[in-house]
Amino acid sequence: MRLPASRTLQLLAAVSLLLGSLALSAGAAAQSLRGSHRAVSRPYRYAKTHDLTFLRTSSAVRRALHEGDFVRLGANPHYVLHEVSFPYVTPTTRLFVRRLAAQYHNACGERLVITSAVRPKVAQPANASPRSVHPTGIAIDLRRPTGKCLRWLRSTLLTLERRGVVEATEEHHPAHFHVVVYGAPYRQYLASR
Ligand SMILES: [Zn+2]
Fold first, then answer.
1. Distance from the CA of 179 to the center of ligand 1, in angstroms?
2. How many Cα atoms occupy the beta-carbon half-sphere of 20 within 13 Å?
3. Whole-model pTM?
4. Under a CB-based contact definition with an 8 Å cutoff, are residues 77 and 45 in contact?
5. What spacing in Å lies between the alpha carbon of 157 and ligand 1's midpoint?
6. How far is the centre of ligand 1, averaged over its atoms, from the C-alpha of 178 (Å)?
7. What's the pLDDT tens digit per position in 56-103?
8. How close is the Cα of 1 to the center of ligand 1, in Å?
9. What is the spatial distance between Cα 86 and Cα 53, in angstroms, rounded to a whole number?
10. What's the CA-to-centroid distance between 193 and ligand 1, angstroms?
11. What is 34-191's CATH topology?
């Protein structure tokens, strides 16, 4: 049976739409900055096996700071803190932030914006996963930039994730990157460079 030309065109359009959406979903599957079960469970297991403490209260955060388990993120020419209630992280996570921010600033001309650091359990948002590692001080949130800075940040975080030194997730409400720094592998990674 011969199809009328207009019907053939409709079919071709439908096929190309289908192929287009297949290509899109393959692209999305190949990139690993999407939230997933693994993106939550792997940091949680890391924190548990490394005996990290999930701090409950702000006084526990102050104690950890006093004992040197946490350090203040502080001021830096390469990053700014935006409404961070508890600007503290582990020393290795601060080292990561300082290095990433310097490279970011150099590559795209903007300062990195940190929107969250340690969050004791009592200060976690209502929708936070009970397995979030923010209460351990190894995670930070970064505001999602645009344009060149966004491309640089995505590709750098993906590279670091493939090397097993971070777990990075691009979140959408609000738009930010959630980044967990695996301290021991990150220190090894720096030593091997
Ligand atoms: Zn986060």
1. 6
2. 6
3. 0.82
4. no
5. 14
6. 4
7. 999 999 999 999 999 999 989 999 999 999 999 999 999 999 999 999
8. 59
9. 16
10. 28
11. Muramoyl-pentapeptide Carboxypeptidase; domain 2 (3.30.1380)
